[in-house]
């Protein structure tokens, strides 16, 4: 595994890293990524779908993160899948927590990143 300093060594090549690794590398080198994740994803050749908010958190060693699911009206029942977790190897580990309906959007964003690597000659 590479260290953070190794990952910051140069520009991110979308043809050689997956979206999660590229986003991790960018966040390690530029803390402002958490303030404007849409711009960070745009740098990586990825468009966030309209209506989908994107939140980036760089983990802190002194913080426990708890994601509370939304409240659903009683007629929906509590039986539908609310969130999915997608663990991805990037640095030590990258975790997506997303509504089930956003899984397709995540797959499309990964595909955009992969395609960008081939289009710009890198």
What does this structure look like?
By secondary structure, the protein is α+β, with helices and mostly antiparallel strands. Helices cover 32% and strands 10% of the residues. The protein has 4 helices and 2 strands. It has a two-stranded antiparallel ribbon with strand order 1-2. Strand 1 (83-88) and strand 2 (94-99) form a beta hairpin. The longest helix has 17 residues, at 103-119.
Topology:
Blueprint: H1 4-7, H2 19-29, H3 37-43, E1 83-88, E2 94-99, H4 103-119
Low-pLDDT stretches are 1-10
Instruction: State the strand order across the main sheet.
Output: 1-2
Please give the count of helices: 4
Helix/sheet category: alpha+beta
Count of strand segments: 2
Shape: globular
Question: How widely separated are the two ends?
Answer: 23 Å
Instruction: Give a short account of the largest sheet.
Output: 2 strands, antiparallel
Average the pLDDT over all residues and give the rounded result. 75
Gyration radius, in Å: 16 Å
- Can you give the helix content as a percent range? 25-40%
Helices and strands, in N-to-C order? HHHEEH
Beta-strand portion reads 5-15%
Describe the structure concisely for a colleague.
The chain is 32% helix and 10% strand. The chain has 122 residues and is an alpha+beta fold. The protein is globular.
Any key phrases for this structure?
10% strand; two-stranded antiparallel sheet; alpha+beta; 122 residues; globular
